């Protein structure tokens, strides 16, 4: 059994009440360890540890903070195989993906913010009436970071790295479904020389452990990535306490394909943007709109490519689609396939659970393409967050813009066209925080990241993240 402990004040602790939760391996459905079911008391202990580390960490030189963050990054890179295996076992994603994307990106997050903090500056304004204003950017104190299960270490570190780079101390909770790499990160932080208490990781359920973080009166900012309903709940709890909030929530992203695109590039990327990580990426293009003149050709080519994807055990090199993260999530996704059928959607391929020999109790599902009769149906409006995409034709820019913007979400959009005017017009009018043109999930960590509408508030990435994790204080001096 691989058991996990809370990481508080640089040490590993059992939960105070000694309550535990089973941790499942999605590839075979077996329990392979236990994790703390932390209570309010554990969160309080983590908070006290963070608080005691705060003033000194915030006064540690920028060079020293930067050095430690970059050291964490190097240690993650040196432990790539171990972390990739652990991530894959915990989440069900192919090891190849964890090795190529999740763990390198987690390392990049520390390296990027270790460097970014050395370049972070604030403004000064000289006023005409013999005064100068300058703005201080001060760390907030103890902040909370809460992350989801789909890109466990990648998204966990995307919050933690800027928080500590900016001089804050952190109480963090990974998803209880995928806690393993966050646990391993604690050991790396010690090895890198991160002072005790700067980062504290408490494991447990959202409704109790997570709740204790968001309602803690002295945890002054919450950076959260997860579902829209949870985000709304957090906003309700945090708003009366005037906490700073960054909410990165769900998506139902349009992938809009015009006939004048580079077809082969579009086709290959669309397979990826539909099914990477079993479709469990908030940025996946789950609603595919195709210009009518190439619709039938696209449908045939796309379905052929999707049918060729191999569903298999995450450790096999040939696997394209691993296991979904949990049994309840598998059931939720299957239920949406039933809803699609009831709404007269046509299942063009997939739609069934897969039994992988030797791992019969794993949570495997065929990549599924559904042709939908209209864009109002539930599978086109609600986030499924699995290996399921819908396709339908469109006839002109205005029609597809209207359909693309009709959902409650607004995280990202992908556009495939070589027409410059159309690119400019549609990029302006798409309701999304991120628009990709002729590419997907191409990330530059300096750019603002986040969504509009029910996809959240605030932006992560680059100096936006450092601004979130600091308070601006203006000083005006008359001379
Ligand atoms: P959830 O909202 O269920 O959970 C996210 C995190 O919040 C988990 O750690 C969870 O703990 C915790 N949590 C749940 N309830 C509370 C609470 N009351 N107080 C504090 N914390 C709480 O999301 P999922 O983990 O299911 O992740 C999938 C969702 O995340 C999808 O909607 C997806 O679109 C979104 N997402 C958004 C991204 C973005 O950048 N916009 C990126 C990636 C995912 P526990 O696991 O124990 O319930």
TrEMBL record:
PANTHER family, per database record: 2-AMINOMUCONIC SEMIALDEHYDE DEHYDROGENASE
Catalytic residue list: 248
Organism: Olleya sediminilitoris
This protein's record includes keyword NAD: yes
Domain Aldehyde dehydrogenase: 19-475
Domain of life of the native organism: Bacteria
Pfam families linked to this entry: Aldedh (PF00171)
Transmembrane region(s): none
Alphabetical keyword list: NAD, Oxidoreductase
Family: Belongs to the aldehyde dehydrogenase family.
Protein name, UniProt field: Aldehyde dehydrogenase
């Amino acid at each position: 059994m691989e058991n996990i402990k809370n990481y508080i004040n640089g040490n590993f602790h059992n939960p105070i009440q000694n309550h535990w939760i089973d941790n499942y391996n999605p590839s075979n459905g077996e329990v392979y360890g236990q994790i703390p079911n932390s209570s309010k008391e554990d969160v309080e202990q983590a908070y006290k540890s963070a608080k005691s580390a705060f003033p000194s960490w915030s006064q540690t030189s920028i060079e020293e903070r930067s050095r430690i963050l970059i050291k964490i990054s190097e240690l993650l890179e040196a432990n790539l195989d171990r972390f990739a295996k652990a991530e894959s076992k915990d989440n069900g994603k192919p090891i190849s993906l964890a090795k190529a994307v999740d763990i390198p990106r987690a390392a990049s997050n520390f390296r990027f913010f270790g460097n970014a903090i050395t370049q972070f500056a604030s403004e000064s304004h000289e006023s005409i009436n013999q005064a100068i204003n300058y703005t201080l950017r001060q760390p907030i104190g103890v902040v909370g970071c809460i992350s989801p299960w789909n890109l466990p270490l990648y998204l966990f570190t995307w919050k933690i790295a800027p928080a500590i780079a900016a001089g804050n101390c952190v109480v963090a909770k990974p998803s209880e479904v995928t806690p393993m790499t966050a646990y391993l990160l604690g050991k790396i932080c010690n090895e890198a020389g991160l002072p005790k208490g700067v980062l504290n990781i408490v494991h447990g359920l959202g409704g109790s452990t997570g709740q204790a973080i968001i309602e803690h009166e002295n945890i002054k900012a919450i950076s959260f990535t997860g579902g829209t309903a949870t985000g709304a709940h957090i906003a309700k709890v945090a708003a009366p306490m005037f906490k700073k909030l960054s909410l990165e929530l769900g998506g139902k992203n349009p992938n809009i394909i015009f006939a004048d695109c580079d077809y082969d590039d579009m086709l290959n990327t669309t397979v990826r943007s539909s099914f990477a990580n079993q479709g469990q990426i908030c940025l996946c293009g789950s609603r595919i709109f195709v210009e009518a003149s190439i619709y039938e050709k696209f449908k045939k080519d796309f379905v052929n490519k999707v049918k060729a994807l191999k569903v298999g055990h995450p450790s096999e090199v040939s696997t394209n689609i691993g296991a979904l993260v949990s049994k309840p999530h598998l059931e939720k996704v299957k239920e949406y396939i039933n809803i699609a059928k009831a709404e007269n959607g046509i299942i063009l391929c997939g739609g069934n659970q897969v039994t992988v020999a030797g791992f019969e109790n794993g949570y495997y599902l065929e990549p599924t393409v559904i042709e939908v009769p209209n864009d109002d149906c539930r599978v086109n409006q609600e986030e499924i967050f699995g290996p399921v995409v819908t396709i339908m034709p469109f006839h002109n820019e205005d029609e597809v813009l209207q359909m693309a913007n009709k959902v409650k979400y607004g995280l990202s959009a992908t556009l495939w066209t070589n027409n410059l005017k159309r690119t400019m017009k549609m990029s302006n009018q798409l309701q999304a925080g991120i628009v990709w043109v002729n590419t997907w999930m191409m990330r530059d960590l300096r750019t603002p990241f986040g969504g509009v509408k029910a996809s959240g508030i605030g932006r992560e990435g680059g100096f936006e993240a450092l601004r979130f994790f600091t308070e601006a204080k203006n000083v005006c001096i008359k001379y």
